[in-house]
Amino acid sequence: MKNIPLFERIRAAMRRYEDTHNYTCDVCGREVFGNERLCRACAEALPLHRGEICPRCGRSVAEAGVCMECRRSLPAADKMRSAMDHEGEGARLVVRFKTGEKYLFRTLADLMAPLAAREFSDCDLVTSVPMTASARRKRGYDQSRLLAEEIARRSGKPYAVCADKTRETAAQKTLSRAERERNLKGCFRAKKKTVAGKIVLVADDTMTTGSTASELAAALRRAGATKVYFLTATSVPQKTLPPAFSERQSGV
Ligand SMILES: [Zn+2]
Ligand SMILES: [Zn+2]
User: pLDDT, tens digit, for every residue of 103-116?
Assistant: First the structure.
């Protein structure tokens, strides 16, 4: 205890307090008891993955087996999982989290941590999707890092910065797969010393086409990571990939 700096001890105490003192549901605002972050009705209404998922990328699929996206192009990550479909209240939670409601990282981590324990217990370290300093300034916080640090803390694994983002990239939303890949090409530089010989778990808020995950996973693998896993709060189900993406794909 003596060796732990005072501010670290205060920070840990504050975290313990925040972890155990919650009075209203993060979705509907109703009063909650027993320190839950969601009331029972809202928790039950979340689009949690209950049906079939793609064994590789983890998105919801209508029929068991590898999804169309992975069949078209296998993700560079070894295994990807997400807690919810990017729909309804699941999508709204992620959007709120990314647009100012920073505190929601705990609510999302509540849903992600059990998956980390079940699917990724062999990882050596947890990391986040790097963002540039200017992007972080714009948002005011690094949402992927907040999630990753929380997942690391809850799973008892170290958090480490494993890569830098070397340049700004255009928003991915309206781009086709090929455009997304071009947009991201070479934008991550992984840290050999940190990842060589390690199984790395990357935590992030959402997975749409998986292009970002693949670009980062490829960079980590090139730097010597033995395996790369991805864990997100939500993923876009196969049937609802962005129209711009699916339409252009169908013409290929
Ligand atoms: Zn509620
Ligand atoms: Zn898939």
Answer: 999 999 999 999 99
Q: Same structural domain for residues 123 and 55?
A: yes
Q: How far is the CA of 105 from the centre of ligand 1 (A)?
A: 17
Q: Give the ligand with the smallest distance to the CA of 237.
A: 2
Structurally, the chain folds into a number of domains equal to 2
Question: For the purposes of burial, counting CB atoms within 10 Å of the CB of 189, is it exposed (0-12), middle (13-18) or buried (19 or more)?
Answer: middle
**11 and 76 inside one domain:** no
Protein residues with C-beta less than 5 angstroms from the ion ligand 2: 54, 56-57, 67, 70
Q: From ligand 1's centre to the CA of 116, what distance in Å?
A: 25
CA of 194 to the centre of ligand 1 (A): 41
Cα dihedral across residues 106, 110, 112, 115: positive or negative: positive
Of 114-118, 146-150, 209-213, the one with minimum mean pLDDT is 209-213
Same domain, yes or no: 206 and 185: yes
**Pair (151, 186) in one structural domain:** yes
Residue 161 Cα to ligand 1 middle (Å): 35
**148-183 tens-digit pLDDT:** 999 999 999 999 999 999 988 888 777 887 888 888
pLDDT confidence tier of residue 123, bands split at 50, 70 and 90 = very high
Distance CA 51, CA 149 (A): 29
**Residue-number span of the structural domain to which 70 is assigned:** 47-250
Ligand 1 center to residue 53 CA distance, Å? 27
User: Closest-lying ligand to the alpha carbon of 42?
Assistant: 1
Give, rounded to a whole angstrom, the gap between the first and last alpha carbons of the chain. 61
Rounded to whole angstroms, what are the CA distances from 38 to 7, 22, 151?
Answer: 30, 9, 19
